[in-house]
């Protein structure tokens, strides 16, 4: 596929005293320190991937409920920033089809799918006896269009995987996806259909080994559970863990079982981790993972609830540090899916995913946000890199991070190299499907003039968004403290 890779200078495997515990600094300062070079002092990159981007306008119109922290409207904010930054010029933009029931059934149980198809807000009282069986409640409510929402975001992830398989893209971006908690038989943590598992199942039809990386603040339990007994998928999750924080899994000794023994990597972190500690840890672990596992494809879940000041989060990461994880994985030159996930202060979610779209395209974005019809969401600074760090004390000492790193590297040594897999040629229906679909994919490049026209309109509010204040600024301090240990992603 003509991918170019460069030599990368990797970081050391321990945390030097030069990285001060609790060291802060603005996200813009951190971004400036990384501009044009690897954060570890490496060379300027020359990898120029082909990027495909998946968006569907309807995805931002769904509404979980007035008090629910999950707000799909964040997708609308993200797409407006992406288009108005002009990033569509650097990638192929597609409106993906919906996933079929048969595709969703490749992972999820038939009776659970039947329930999702049939239940609506109008008939939920008649079906309430099924709620306990399918884990329906405050975290996973019944809302209008729920099944359609699942088909939209799952279809995009499946299409993204197939685009990588076909060789027509090196990186595929789907911010609608990343719902990593959904289980085979039930929803969990705001997630109903696990689009990540569905996408990885597609990738496994072509690639011998797939690496799943999760930087959401919550453990990627649904994906880990799905592939816990296989050595063809390695899951690697960086998350808060204390035994109580949702979903309560993700301890370092959860390593997989059977053939999958040692192929589940968990990086449990404490409150308040900062930019330099997180990025150094991430690069150290992922360098070892890539050298040991040698994946044919990567799925990177970019949950933005690990940012500082997230309504449900307790980390101190800036947008620049979060994006540096994306930049680092991009530099390996391995086919990669980049997907969304958590994130509940939606103005910062949109900033973060826009910044990371620029990273995968190899484009530096100006720090001042472009004007859109949703300008008021980003007041008062209108900046791509607001100050997000410093609210939570960093409880991750150097000693703890060094011990954590050593334990993970020891686990990887047990693998003794990447497993070999006897592979056949890619199933012909994948390629045939792609050829049929190529003519029907809607390239929305032509819609940018319409978007620019819409942005000049006077519209401010969105039908799917509940405003807790005039412009959903999330009552930054009070609500964040009250809900930081509340409902998950």
UniProtKB/TrEMBL annotation:
Keywords: Chromatin regulator, Hydrolase, Metal-binding, Nucleus, Transcription, Transcription regulation. The gene is HOS2. This is Histone deacetylase. Pfam families: Hist_deacetyl (PF00850). It comes from Coemansia thaxteri. It is an enzyme of class 3 (hydrolase). Residues 68-357 form the Histone deacetylase domain. The active site is at residue 181. It is found in: Nucleus. Residues 432-489 are annotated as: Disordered. Its EC number is 3.5.1.98. GO terms for molecular function: histone deacetylase activity, hydrolytic mechanism; metal ion binding. The lineage of its organism: Eukaryota, Fungi, Fungi incertae sedis, Zoopagomycota, Kickxellomycotina. Substrate binds at residues 139, 189, 344.
């Amino acid at each position: 596929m003509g991918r170019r890779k460069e030599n990368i200078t990797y970081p050391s495997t321990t945390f030097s005293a030069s990285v001060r515990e609790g060291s802060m600094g603005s996200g813009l300062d951190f971004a400036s320190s990384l501009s044009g070079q690897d954060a570890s002092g490496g060379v300027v990159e020359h990898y120029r991937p082909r990027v495909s981007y998946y968006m569907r306008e309807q995805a931002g119109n769904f509404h979980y409920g007035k008090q629910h922290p999950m707000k799909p409207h964040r997708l609308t904010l993200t797409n407006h920033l992406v288009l108005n930054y002009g990033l569509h010029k650097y990638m192929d933009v597609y409106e993906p089809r919906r996933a079929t029931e048969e595709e969703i059934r490749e992972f999820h149980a038939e009776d659970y799918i039947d329930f999702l198809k049939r239940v609506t807000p109008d008939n939920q009282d008649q079906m309430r006896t099924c709620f306990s069986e399918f884990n329906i409640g405050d975290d996973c409510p019944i809302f209008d269009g729920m099944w359609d929402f699942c088909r939209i975001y799952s279809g995009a992830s499946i299409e993204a995987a197939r685009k990588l398989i076909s060789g027509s893209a090196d990186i595929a971006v789907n911010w609608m996806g990343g719902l990593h908690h959904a289980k085979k038989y039930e929803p969990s943590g705001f997630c109903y259909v696990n689009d990540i598992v569905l996408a990885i199942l597609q990738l496994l039809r072509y690639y011998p080994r797939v690496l799943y990386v999760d930087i959401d603040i919550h453990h990627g339990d649904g994906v880990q559970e799905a592939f816990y007994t296989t050595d063809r998928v390695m899951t690697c999750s960086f998350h808060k863990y204390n035994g109580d924080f949702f979903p309560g899994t993700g301890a370092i000794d959860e390593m997989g079982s059977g053939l999958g023994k040692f192929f589940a990597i968990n990086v449990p972190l404490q409150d308040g981790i900062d930019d330099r500690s997180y990025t150094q840890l991430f690069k150290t672990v992922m360098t070892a993972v890539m050298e040991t596992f040698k994946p044919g494809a990567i799925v990177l879940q970019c949950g933005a609830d690990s940012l500082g000041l997230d309504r449900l989060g307790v980390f101190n990461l800036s947008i620049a540090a979060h994006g540096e994880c994306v930049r680092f994985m991009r530099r390996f030159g391995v086919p990669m899916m980049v997907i969304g996930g958590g994130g509940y202060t939606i103005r910062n979610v949109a900033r973060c995913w826009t910044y990371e779209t620029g990273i995968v395209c190899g484009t530096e974005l100006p720090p001042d946000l472009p004007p859109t019809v949703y300008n008021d969401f980003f007041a008062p600074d209108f900046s791509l890199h607001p100050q997000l760090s410093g609210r939570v004390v960093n409880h991750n000492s150097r000693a703890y991070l060094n011990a954590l790193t050593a334990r993970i590297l020891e686990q990887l040594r047990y693998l003794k190299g990447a497993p070999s897999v006897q592979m056949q040629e890619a199933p012909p229906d994948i390629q045939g499907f792609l050829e049929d679909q190529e003519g029907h994919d809607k390239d929305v490049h032509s819609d940018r003039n319409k978007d620019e026209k819409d942005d000049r309109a006077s519209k401010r509010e969105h039908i799917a968004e509940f405003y807790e204040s005039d412009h959903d600024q999330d009552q930054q301090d009070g609500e964040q403290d009250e809900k930081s240990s509340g409902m998950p992603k």
